């Protein structure tokens, strides 16, 4: 099974992807997590991507397509993958179509997580992230057991530079202008499924699991 999680910044893609990938044995391929790891390693790609990420705009399509293709070819993705944050433009979606065809696979479902902008701003400005294991928390709705410390691995939690209020607004505008058209793209291919991302996290998980059927 190969899935796409499509939705605005803060819709809960990372939160749900970790759960769904674990349950269905899929490789969780988060373009944002992969880019942040490249930035931490100070790689060529990381250095090229950093200024776009800090500004809340999109990293160029060519860089993203090469990066995600490399991850889709890895052995741990052979059983299926869950794409989180990719594709984000029509050019990326077309590039993904070519890659998936070359691998002899198909996209089964593009899950569209819908949340209103005002709620997204509150979620993102209160988010705290683990730079070590990518676990996700929120100061109000999902605080860690010990303030500032990851429950899963004990690393110090951080606020992402792009979760500052002024960058969040740019990210939301970028989403509506450049990623919004993918809803029609995947609806036209008959693989789009809408999910209410404003519900409680466990309810969102249940809705996505119902779309995916039973684990193989
Ligand atoms: P990326 O890391 O992909 O960020 P994003 O898409 O903006 O998504 P987020 O990680 O911010 O949110 P999420 O939907 O995963 O929500 P989460 O589960 O954390 O991208 C970052 C940057 O990298 C981009 O701006 C761009 O520069 C670059 N980039 C990445 N991919 C790219 C691509 N394909 N092309 C070009 N550039 C690319 O949840 C958010 C908060 O809400 C958390 O605190 C969580 O606890 C809380 N929460 C989650 N679910 C719920 C719920 N149901 N109810 C209440 N609270 C909830």
Task: Give the gist of this structure.
The chain is of the alpha/beta class and about 220 residues long. The chain is built from nine helices and seven strands. Strand 5 and strand 6 form a beta hairpin.
Give an overview of the whole structure.
The chain is an alpha/beta fold and 216 residues long. 48% of the residues lie in helices and 13% in strands. It is built from nine helices and seven strands; from the N terminus they run βαβαααβαβαββααβα. A five-stranded parallel β-sheet has the order 2-3-1-4-7, sandwiched between helices. A two-stranded antiparallel ribbon has the order 5-6. Strand 5 and strand 6 form a beta hairpin. The mean pLDDT is 96. The structure holds BIS(adenosine)-5'-pentaphosphate (AP5). BIS(adenosine)-5'-pentaphosphate is lined by residues 7, 9-15, 31-32, 35, 52-53, 56, 58-59, 64, 85-86, 88, 92, 123-124, 127, 136-138, 141-142, 162, 171, 200-201, 204.
The CATH homologous superfamily name of the domain at 3-115 and 175-212 equals P-loop containing nucleotide triphosphate hydrolases
The biggest beta sheet reads: 5 strands, parallel
- CA(first)-CA(last) distance: 9 Å
User: What is the CATH C level class of the domain at 3-115 and 175-212, in words?
Assistant: Alpha Beta
Strand line-up across the major sheet: 2-3-1-4-7
Specify the number of helices: 9
Quantity of strands, as a count: 7
Radius of gyration: 16 Å
Question: How does the helix and strand content classify structurally?
Answer: alpha/beta
């Amino acid at each position: 099974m190969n899935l796409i999680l499509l939705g605005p910044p803060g819709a809960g893609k990372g939160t749900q992807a970790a759960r769904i990938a674990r349950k269905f044995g899929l490789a969780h391929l988060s373009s944002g997590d992969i880019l942040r790891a490249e930035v931490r390693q100070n790689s060529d790609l990381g250095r090229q991507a950093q200024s776009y990420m800090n500004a809340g705009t999109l990293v160029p399509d060519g860089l993203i397509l090469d990066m995600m293709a490399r991850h889709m070819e890895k052995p741990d993705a052979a059983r299926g993958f869950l794409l989180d944050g990719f594709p984000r433009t029509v050019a990326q979606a077309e590039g993904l179509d070519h890659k998936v065809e070359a691998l002899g696979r198909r996209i089964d479902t593009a899950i569209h997580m819908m949340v209103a902008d005002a709620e997204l701003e509150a979620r993102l400005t209160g988010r705290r992230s683990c730079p070590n294991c990518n676990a996700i928390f929120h100061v109000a709705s999902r605080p860690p057991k010990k303030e500032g410390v990851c429950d899963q691995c004990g690393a110090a939690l951080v606020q992402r530079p792009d979760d500052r209020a002024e960058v969040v607004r740019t990210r939301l505008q970028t989403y509506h202008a450049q990623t919004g058209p993918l809803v029609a793209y995947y609806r036209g291919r008959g693989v789009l499924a809408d999910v209410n991302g404003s519900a409680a996290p466990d309810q969102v998980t249940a809705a996505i699991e119902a779309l995916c059927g039973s684990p193989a």
